[in-house]
Amino acid sequence: MSAQVLPLEARADLRRSVLTHLRRSGRIPGVVYGKGREPVPVAVEEALLVKMQTGQETALVDIELPGQGRLPAVIQEIQRDPVTRKILHVDFHVVMLDEPVDVEVPVQVQGIEEVDKRGLVAQVLLRHLRIRCLPTEIPEHLRVDVSRAEEGDVIRAADVQLPDGAHLLEEADEVVVNISAAGAGAGAGETLPEEPKGPEMVRDTEGKGRRE
């Protein structure tokens, strides 16, 4: 299990005024759910959550739920204020370590400077790829090297190297990156930042996370 543990506090009062008080006191409202589990509203210390999110993010964490002990979970979604970027809500998806999960992993494009030097543009059409893998094998990102790409080159989902044991859920011919001459096809895509966000769970029917 993960070396990082996030102690959670169960919460029963779902009134908006209580949520406001939670955030003002340095805690973040959230929900815990998973296969065969009823969603449980929780709260987590903001400082602990932010600390866990700094540096190299870890997709798999241990949560500590009152009466249930430590449970392996993946952070499915973090909602942020669009202006301040402060965390407003977090979803925890309890997983089984020996059962594959479907996740969205960010694409990290490398070699963009080399492309620019040749008067070309790397147009990123897919920022994330959906894959299926064990929770312990979720990659932080998927690298795509375009340093030697030429005009007209196309990198498709099937061309992206996945970790051993992982399976691609996207259509194999989905275009991830397109290399074109500068000024050609403007607006068709955009260059991806060098540091994309970490992996996210793919929402499914089990994810009934209530935003409260």
Automatic annotation (TrEMBL):
UniProt KW Nucleus keyword: no
Large ribosomal subunit protein bL25 L25 domain: residues covered: 9-92
Domain Large ribosomal subunit protein bL25 beta: residue ranges: 101-181
Disordered: annotated span: 184-212
Signal peptide residues on this chain, from the entry's feature table: none
GO cellular component: cytosolic large ribosomal subunit
Keywords: Ribonucleoprotein, Ribosomal protein, RNA-binding, rRNA-binding
Methyltransferase listed as a keyword: no
GO biological process, alphabetically ordered: translation
Biased composition (Basic and acidic residues): 194-212
Molecular function via GO: 5S rRNA binding; structural constituent of ribosome
Assembly and binders: Part of the 50S ribosomal subunit; part of the 5S rRNA/L5/L18/L25 subcomplex. Contacts the 5S rRNA. Binds to the 5S rRNA independently of L5 and L18.
Family: Belongs to the bacterial ribosomal protein bL25 family. CTC subfamily.
Primary role: This is one of the proteins that binds to the 5S RNA in the ribosome where it forms part of the central protuberance.
Name of the protein this chain belongs to: Large ribosomal subunit protein bL25
Organism: Kyrpidia tusciae (strain DSM 2912 / NBRC 15312 / T2) (Bacillus tusciae)
